[in-house]
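Input set for joint prediction.
Command: fold jointly, output tokens.
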Amino acid sequence: MKTMKKTYITLGLAAVLAGMNACTNLDENVYSQVNADKFYNNRQEVMAAVLRPFTHANAWAAPTGQVGYWRVNELSADQLAWPQKGRHGYDGGDWIRLHQHTWTVDDPNAWNPWRLMFWGMGFCNNTIADLQKVDFKKIGMTDQDKASIIAETKVLRAWHYLKLMDLYGNIPIITTVGEPLSPPNKPRAEVWAFIEKELKDNVELLQPLAPAMVGRVSKAGGYAMLVELYLNAQEWTGTPKWDECITYCDKIINGDGGSLKGTVPALETDITKPFNNVNHTSPENLFQIAYDYTVGNFRFGWNGDLWHYNQRFAYNATFGGNNGIVVIPTAFDAFEDKDLRKSNWLLIGLQYKHPAMRNPSDPADTVLRGTEEYNGKPLIFVKEIRRNSEGETGEGGMTRGEENSGARFAKYLSGPQTDPNYWNNDFVLYRLAEIYYNKAEAIMRKNGNVATQPAVDLVNAVRKRAFSAADWPAKAYTTATLTMDEFLAERGREFIFEGKRRSDLIRFGKFTTKTWWDHPASNNDKWKIFPIPRRQMVANPSLKQNPGYVD
Amino acid sequence: MKKRSTFLKRVSWLGMMLLLTASLAFAQNRTIKGKVVDAKDRSPLPGVTVKLKDTNTGTQTTTDGSFSITVPAASAVLEFSFIGYETKEVPAGSGGNLNVELNLSSRTLNDVVVVGYGTLKKREITSAVTSIKAEDFNQGGTRNAMDLIQGKVAGLSITRTSGNNPNSGASLQLRGVTSLNGSNGPLIVIDGIPGGNLDLLTQDDIASIDVLRDGSAAAIYGTRGNGGVILVTTKKGRSGTPQFNYSTYVQREAIAKRPDILSAEEYKSLTTPVNNLGADVDLYSMLINKNNTSHYHNFSATGGTDKSNYRASIYYSDAEGIAIRNNRKQYGGRLNINQTGLQGKLTLQLNLATNFNKADLLGGSSGDFEQAVQRNPTAPIKNPDGTFVETTAYNNYNPVARLSQELSERDQQTTSGDAKATLEVIKGLRISAFGALMRNSWNDRQYRVRASRSSQNDYQGGGYAYKRNDLVNNRIFESTIDYTRTFAIDHDVTVLGGYSYQYATGENFSANNAGFLTDAFQDWNLGNGVYLTQGKAGMGSNKEDNTLIAFFGRVNYAFRKKYIAQFILRHEGSSRFGANNKWGNFPAASLGWLLSEEDFVKRIPFINELKLRGGFGVTGNDGFGNYLSQVMLSTGGTYLQNGVWYQTYGPSKNPNPDLRWEKKQEWNIGVDFSLFNNRLGGTIDLYNRRTVDLAINATAQLPPFVTESLFTNVGTVSNKGVEVIINAIPVQTKQLTWRTDVTFNNQNNKLVSLSNGKYSINVMEFGGLPSPGALGNAIRIVEGGSIGNFYGKRFAGFTDDGKWLFYKKDGSKGQAADMTEEDKTIIGNGVPKFMASWSNNVRYKNFDLTVFFRGKFGYQLLNLQELYFANKKWLPNNLLKSATTRHAKLDDAPQYSDYYLENGNFVKLDNITLGYNFKLNTPYIRSLRVYATGRNMATFTRYSGLDPELEDNGLTTGIDSRGFYPRTRSWALGLQIGF
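tokens >
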């Protein structure tokens, strides 16, 4: 009996122990995601990482529904606003503070661009670090491929810093993911010098702009970044760099950076062409976020921010709008009626339904209709932002909008859903027209803020497209008419909706001194840069807040 | 004096001895025969101990419940005792035949309580455990097994936020919030299977539900113990005469309260003629399934010998919701087989359960009911030509059209099988191996016809189809060894050790296509839509896995059965934890003192039972997502590579190799008592818990990190509270018994910290208010603040023209546009401070009546329906009537402020059941009971909304959302028959 018991015990314990030893392996098996160790096995995988920051720029550089560079650079300026329209659009007062320059260190408008842009910058750092570990020969790529890819990523990173410095001034400079944990922010001039060095060290290693380089950082794009850096150097560092600005403008104009068509970039004669749904072929465009909805299922989704709820029915388009951003009345009035940019790029008045969207059994179904104050009534966009339905007169204001208030966005048009290139528009970041204007501006500033004939010629070359041949002689600038104030207004007309207005107002000294519509002048230079977001101040004790902001 | 007393003693002793001898000498031994049955279902009870009182003479009942015992005298008293039943004393009497009924008991120290990896007697329990037996479950029709104990367990909040929707579950939370990001609900263990699926349970298959409320008990479940543990034990096979049981009910539901909206006439008087579309439509009623009927059937069989027995049950239920296109049909079964062999040393237990269900998921959505309130009441549903009318106002759609033109169904099967073999190696030493498999799979399908609004607006007028298949597998292996022995009479020791391995996978596949030329296929010819050829069809698949491995042990020790101690240690690792912190330790200790076993307490006549206990336990929570500690490259949209649009890849999060479990440390002290002949009993528990290392997305330093947040352990939450349970039997006569139970609990949740020194987050916000207006988040928690605080503006009145006025921080008043972040403050709290229930059970002869009240107190509700719909600015949509009465002065866009906060206190008459037990003298029917139940009969509250019982678990609490699934009163008629 006793041995029997012992056997039982031994057997029993053995069974239990066998169970216990069975497994202590706690590895996670990854199925539907991939980590860096298992990636970078071929050219496509390498490029997939290189291109990640480009698709990410969709979120912050373009008006696609997030609070990024585009939104704060436009909605804090004198052309566009997101007014409250009845029960819609109050949005915690975010857009009112942006318009009136009363944002705080807690503001989503301060945090979100930081979040999105440094995230994009982090992708660049991550790619550069990961690619150092890849054996390019093993995956059939050359050292030259590697140098070119890394140079492109570094220039792209420099562009992120350029735009971050524009918004925040004094920012940390990080080139390695995770190090150091709590970096201090550097003075703006130091950031500026870092960007200049990174651009100059790498821009000549880039490929020239060509159809194969659409949507990528080419030499032309890199030069355009240098142009922006030098044009704003006086504002950003206190030291003007007009000659350097002109030098790089000339490189682009002369074709040293390549072109999307032929060898030299060229201005379009039709003002819709840089923005239409085949604008990846426009010789005017130098750097753009490439989109392709029909094949790539990647789309420049401006509809959310910029369209009325029912605006899509005017185009036979498939994506709705949130009735958000509209043109400020004074900005609308800054266009002359004969200016084709007003009639082509802005939408005003009664809107008609696209024939394909009409109810065939209802002959009256020809116009767009409202859903709010004008529910069931024809939708007529008016330039005023005020309670017209309640008989309000006067200037209106940020809380006085209605569903039809303000002229609307029509600079980019998707085409109808039956179009083979439906919604394939690229978002243009730099185009030749801007290089012309920038060169002209540098010339004028060098010349004591007075126009010269070469400067006037450059501006007229672009402006001429906006008028009929009959109207043009009366509309062409002369050295007498192209004053700095006029130039600022003209820049506004040409680049409306392109995410550049705040920077222009700052460079022209108007951002904090000018009063427009529902925006009183602050006369306080602290508003020229945004505060370091409070949540980063809390997380990172090494950061120093920008002047004038109190945590 | 002294001498005399000694003498007297001696004499009396002598006298007693003489009497006793005489009685023995003259007693006439007689044999008593009889049968012992269950008082409720009258089934024979085998194995009942029948003992002559105060002697060691005794016997046990046989398989048919019969016994035979020789007693010395008619005056002798027989004592019948059986585990799980109340012990009964019966005079042997003069008759030769004695039939005895035993009542199931839930309130004796010998009751068995399930505690995970074994059972303890109630007397051995040293922690806060609630055990609810089947006879105390909520009666009537239930949608979910947890409905059976709603309101019965102090500290356990069970909330059905979508009323009696058959396709939605209940949210559960024990003793407050213990996680800011992970799961807060208790671990459900069904017959030893952790993470068991509630779908596999019907109300007639459950024998008991035991709830481990504090950490000193839950520590045995380690990384899953933070939310507490609910152990469900199903009914098992029993030896004896084979039995059948059939249980059924039919249930109808009616809306408890409708939203009070403007009639068409009232609407027309408020809006412009262009909005008068000529009809008068009661859309709300059109969404209601007025003739809803739910029914349920469970049929079971059990039998066998004491060596091998079984129980099998099959069921069918058809649950119809109060909304149209909102139902669930299910059927399934449960099988239990037990066998003992090898001279009683080896036992094998097998369980197999499955559930097939088919659900219509289309109806009952909150969006539909939002439309029912806000849709223009003059808008007809259909045009004269039969097409549906779509109103044009913002965010409008025709729900009747949606419900007739779309399809959304789920077809699900859940199966669980487990086997446990136990070998008693030597007396007291057992080893066992337990294996379980759970497989849950479901197929979803959707179709929207060509004429539907969705197809017309978004898919160029072609139909839209969608399919998705999900499969979740769980594999569990556990081996345990346990040893029970009494040393030197006074020392009772039980030692348990074990190993546990659980591997779970989840995978899914989905595809959609659109542009179907014909509605003939629905989703059954998915490749047929042109969106596939146009490259716009969608497809996706995903798979994840995780592993939990643990070693655990428990020691229970009792000295003289009155000083009791329990020690637990679980060493557990989860694949979800970071590489540097894979394994954690979860210890617990608790002590009990059974005062009623002490002589100085025994002298107090009215105390029957009295126990003091206290414990401390550490538990964990790994209830967050898989792969969160690692950097993964995720897709970021396509971009052009040499003319081809390829996906891009980049890191989607920051790495955290230090990620570890959330850790709760909990003190619990309690007292259990039973007084006045067990007529008044109860339990009082005090707890203080602190949960540290709460894992949330903390703000990462950006740069240098790539993304804005790091999933890491930063938060600390504390919960304190008291839980009281009182059971009383105010009336107990032969004909009439009234039992009443009261539970009460108070809880206090506080966010202690949101920082760990390296990482932190400054605030957490919840309850985003829906558009229009994007009014921000309603709830904000900060370090040192309470969980569930409403944070916003303070209402200061209206201007003469009806514009909002709010208080600025400095006390002055301003309009909405003048308000800044610093003017906001804490304006209320949505977590109930107190919860209470009161249950009454009256038995009179064969009738029984249950009346159950339940209430929650000390919290506020944010009435979003009023905020949006009771505002004239909501026109041209329809409004609540209160827009023209209570809020008539308001003429401004919606704003969130304390104006819309209301007191949420309520008491519900939650359940009334009247039953009758037939005592039939027929060999064919053993037991027969009929009952009628009404649920949610009345709500006593000052809250103006539809129902004050809203989500109060988790972090988004007390918000009465715009779309609201109707709460119902339900009526059930039931029958239970045993034969």
